[in-house]
Amino acid sequence: MNIKRPVIGITCGEPAGIGPEIAIRAAWQLRDTIKSVLIGDAAMLAILAGEIDPAIKLVATSVQAVRINGLPDFPAGLVTVIDSPVTAWVTPGVLDKNNGGHVLHLLDIAIEGTQAGWLDAIATAPLQKSTINDAGIPFTGHTEYLAQKTGTAQVVMMLAGADLRVALATTHLPLKDVAAAITFDSLMQTLTILHHDLQEKFGIAEPRILVTGLNPHAGEGGYLGREEIDVITPVLQAAQQQGMQVSGPYPADTLFQPKYLQDADCVLAMYHDQGLPVLKHASFGRGVNITLGLPIIRTSVDHGTALDLAARGIGHADHGSMLEALKVAAQMVVARTVTQSETR
Q: Of 247, 268, 287, which closes a domain?
């Protein structure tokens, strides 16, 4: 594995959105430090690259060729594309269900690449769930799909940006279902995954994790709810007995302050809109979505397909979040390599 220039596959996502553009821009900008491998329709990407900057040089190969010969060892001045043609003609900003299967095929190639060793990590551009579902394919999201394809029972969603990491005990659930989903076993498993991946994939020897309560004022001694007393505190005590540096539960409305965060490596929030508004306020457009618990490294952007921007043409999309997703993936590859070498 080349630590100096990690090999990261970028799935270009929904072809009618901004994914292809931001993937090309980020891959080209970081070409000297990261070997980005675009996974998408090579002909479409070549046309797009020429419109962005005629200096951009893409070289295409096929999945079949990579399976036989591995990835070509192109110099930094070239960006590799693994070709996976779209099914239907693409009009920027206009969804077409006929390309739903194409989008999933990009993910399949990336997963195969990481498992076979062609790729060190994956960074995913945004996709449109509705297009895939309209194609008749049951699909709930990138994270769930990656977990299913890699045989992972539980994953943890974490966003990072502005020197802050926020992980979630529950993700895309209706608020009314959150309390029931926070059980001793599920929360303990979440903490175990979070602690392990902060060590192995981020190189943090002794991660310091701050945990929020579920209720206002962290339940206020049971007067505003008992989840802190009955579930969260017993989990933290069990984790501490296993040697994890975890503390809490803290009231979420006062936890996100420098005096607490300066000594923390990550905050574990109980639900989506408890932790992510703070992080996105601090770093939107530069945040990174990271899936923990997978046997592979996967990062993603912190935004959607932005069909309205794609419809306006080249030059309206900001590729900052994809840049950060690639940088974080590369850092994780290096940290994992160092960690694994130290434990051998």
A: 287
**Which CATH number goes with the domain that contains 186?**
3.40.718.10
Q: If phi over 0 gives left and psi between -120 and 50 gives alpha, with beta otherwise, what is residue 282?
A: alpha
| pLDDT for residue 14 | 97
**Are residue 326 and residue 275 in the same domain, yes or no?**
no
Looking at the fold, whether 57 and 91 belong to one and the same domain comes out as: yes
Residue at which a domain ends, from 287, 310, 325: 287
Q: By the 8 A CB rule, do 166 and 159 touch?
A: yes
For 316, the domain range is 1-152+294-344
Query: Tokens standing for 319?
Result: 């590729």
Encode burial over 109-122: b for 16+ CB neighbours within 10 A, e otherwise: bbbbbbeeebbbbb
Q: Specify the long-range contacts of residues 262-265, CB closer than 8 Å, at least 24 apart.
A: 263/208, 264/208, 264/209, 264/210, 265/165, 265/198, 265/202, 265/204, 265/207, 265/208, 265/209
Q: In this structure, are 90 and 135 located in the same domain?
A: yes
Looking at the structure of the chain, the number of domains it has is: 2
Which mean pLDDT values do the consecutive 10-residue runs of the chain (344 residues) have? 79 98 98 96 97 96 95 88 97 96 97 96 96 92 92 95 94 93 98 97 96 96 96 98 97 94 96 93 90 97 95 95 97 90 69
Residue 246 gets the label, from left (phi > 0), alpha (psi -120 to 50) or beta, of: beta
- 147 and 160 fall within a common domain: no
The single-letter DSSP state of residue 58 is E
CA 313 – CA 15 distance, rounded (Å): 13
Helix axis angle for 184-200 and 320-342, nearest 10°, is 80
The answer, as to whether pTM is greater than 0.90, is yes
